[in-house]
Design a protein that fits this description.
mainly alpha; Arc Repressor Mutant, subunit A; 57% helix; globular; transcription; DNA-binding; DNA-binding transcriptional regulator, HxlR family
Length: 122
């Protein structure tokens, strides 16, 4: 079982958001589900860099945190569809704004990320 090294900071809304929404693929998952991509296989195709295992873990966390819910259909083969809860829908304008900010500042962001990846000479 996973044991945290540092306690959760819960005095500030930003800390709370970080605990629930930040994860390598969580914002992508929320965005794609909001766009109507609801099946696990479709989500995997939309985020090919992510492993199915990691996506499943993060979908489960989003479900546990009540940002997404799923419908499991009683059929063979099994069918599952994810959808945003009202709480999940309420964060989408913020995620969209962040995405637009990233698009607007993409040249600068690429430059600083590239600079960060260059190792200093020894």
């Amino acid at each position: 079982m996973y044991e945290r090294k540092l306690p959760i900071q819960d005095e500030c809304g930003l800390d709370l958001i970080r605990e629930v929404v930040f994860g390598k693929w969580k914002i992508h998952l929320l965005y794609y589900i909001w766009q109507g991509i609801s099946r696990p296989g479709q989500l995997q195709k939309s985020i090919p860099e992510a492993t199915r295992r990691v996506l499943n873990i993060q979908l489960k966390q989003l479900e546990d945190d009540e940002l997404v819910a799923k419908t499991v259909y009683d059929q063979q083969p099994p069918k599952v569809e994810y959808y945003l809860t009202d709480l999940g829908k309420s964060i989408m304008p913020i995620i969209n704004e962040l995405g637009q900010w990233g698009d607007h500042n993409s040249e600068h962001l690429r430059r600083v990320i590239k600079k960060r990846l260059v190792l200093p000479e020894v």
